[in-house]
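Lab notebook page, bench 4
Experiment: in silico fold of construct C2
Operator: M.H.
Input chain length: 299 residues
Purpose: comparison with the prior construct
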Amino acid sequence: MEDRSDCPEECRLHFKYDYNMKFADAFTNEVKQVSVFIFDKDGVFVKMQEVEGDILKTEDYSMKLAVTPGKYHLVVWAGLDGESFKTDTLVAGVSTVSDLKAALKSTNLISTSDLHPLWHGEVEDMNVTGVFQEQMISLVKDTHRVNVILQHINGKPVDDLLFRFEIIDDNGLINYDNNLLYSKPLAYKPYKQSQIAVGNTQPIKIACAQMHTSRLVEQNEARLRVIKNDDNTIIIDIPLTSYLLLSGLEGFYGKMSSQEYLDRQDDFSMIFLLDDNLSWLRTQIIINGWTVHIDNTDL
């Protein structure tokens, strides 16, 4: 940011989203809506400023923070579309920061939506001085796409209609500080499920289910289940985040924490190999291109 000390007395907010696996700012390409919730030094709600649309694609976009000088607590939710996530209406001078939560919208605790991406950012102690200043706010993505693929070990076709897929997690309520609050467990079911052919010379048909979840947290006990429709046999029932982290440890061990990997990686692909009984061969799993050999099936 350049020196603008001789500019009008205002505070400008900049936003970036480089907390991803490309380590590159994708804000202008991905974020289409930003809500800034402003609280005073005591945590009482002051106002909300919102912007959406093409203006966010402007190079070096910044938002003028329209408040008087003082100390503030800023919470940013980007991607609130009213369809995937919602927040309660806050009342100026009455509501507090603890009243601000992002809740995933579901029907009977079931989500089958291709969720609108959601991002979070926060500045806990923002001192607005009354002279020109700029503040960068970094965003963390709170949604993940999980693609589950079933492939026969010998290349035989796998019919997706023989199975049902689900992810169970109690991650539907996110606090103002981006930590999860306890909520009733949600069942994420595919927003798209199909049999597809892969390969060129000798294509094989695999079953594919695409699910979209709210924030995955290492301490949560999210589970991925695949169930046969004919007899309700559960062929896959695993702790999802523990398995996803296996791929992270393979590729990025020592470079980032487990939670950082989960926050940066917003798209997971998991390939399970099946035998002639359509049961999972529990010796390996392919996650985002990494082949992970399973030594402990009780993981």
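Observations: The mean pLDDT is 92. The chain has three helices and 22 strands.
Next step: discuss at group meeting.
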